[in-house]
Amino acid sequence: MPRQTVDPHELRAAVTAVLPWLADPGQQQPDRATLAAAVRLSLRTLAQDAPGRSVEVRVPPFAAVQCVAGPRHTRGTPPNVVETDPRTWLELATGRLEWTDAVAQDRVSASGSRADLGELLPLLRIGLDG
C-alpha cells in the first residue's frame, strides 16, 4: 500500500519548528519527536519527489527511504546509499547546505553511481520567519 502523500503545510510546519536549531548550532537540539517529524516528513517528500528504489537515503535514528528511478534493489546492502545525521539532512533539505559542500566536508556518506542527490535538493526553502 503506498504511503500517504506528504502535506506541504505539514512539512513546512515540521521544518519550521527546527529552524532556530539549524540557524544556531548553540541552540538546544529540538526534542526527539519534533526532530523526528521534520526528518521523516522531509525524507518522505524526497521519496515522493523522486520515486524509485535505486537509492536508499538513511538519517539514523529516525528514518530511511528508497527513492530515485533506476534498477530496483531487493536484497542485502543497496549499491547506492546516502547516510547523514539529522542536522545535516535538514540543512540540505532546506537549502542551508549545498550537497557538494556536505560531501566535501564528510558530513554525508554517499556511495554508488546514483547516490548524488544534488539535483533533488533542497526540498523547500524557508527562512527563520517561516
UniProtKB/TrEMBL annotation:
One Pfam family hit: SCP_3
Residue ranges annotated for the Bacterial SCP orthologue domain, each copy included: 31-123
Database matches in InterPro entries: SCP2_sterol-bd_dom_sf (IPR036527), SCP_3 (IPR041629)
Lineage: superkingdom: Bacteria
Annotated signal sequence range: none
Gene3D superfamilies for the chain: 3.30.1050.40
Protein name per UniProt: Bacterial SCP orthologue domain-containing protein
Record organism: Goodfellowiella coeruleoviolacea
